[in-house]
Specification:
By secondary structure, the protein is an alpha+beta fold. Helix content is 18%, strand content 23%. The chain starts with 5 loop residues before the first strand and ends with a strand. Bound molecules: zinc ion.
Length: 120
Amino acid sequence: MKPAIQRTELRTYYYTPVHCPFCGTRVMGADPADETRITACPHTLFIAHDTAIEYRSARFDANVHLTGLSDEEVAARWKALEGGVDDLTNQVTVADAIKVAAYAPEPSAYGSYYGFAPVE
Ligand SMILES: [Zn+2]
């Protein structure tokens, strides 16, 4: 199934810091003291990787029917999908949404996923 969300994949420069395409906020690694800290801007729909969803916006939850669910319930949802978090975040249909999927090379094949969409 073709994803509704527009996708960009990083496979060679997968470690490049990802910035919001709409406002330029660096969403991951902006804090030199803690590079795992995430910074969500108003355009951020989700920040996730293959083992967890780090950030879910209310728009994301509403769009993929996760509103009110706990992190554990959401995890059960994506663990039931063949492609896990990648598949779940491909289901986003928010207008003009953009997803950046960064895949570390084999053998790790570890993916990180960032979703953004304009706000009114
Ligand atoms: Zn932004």
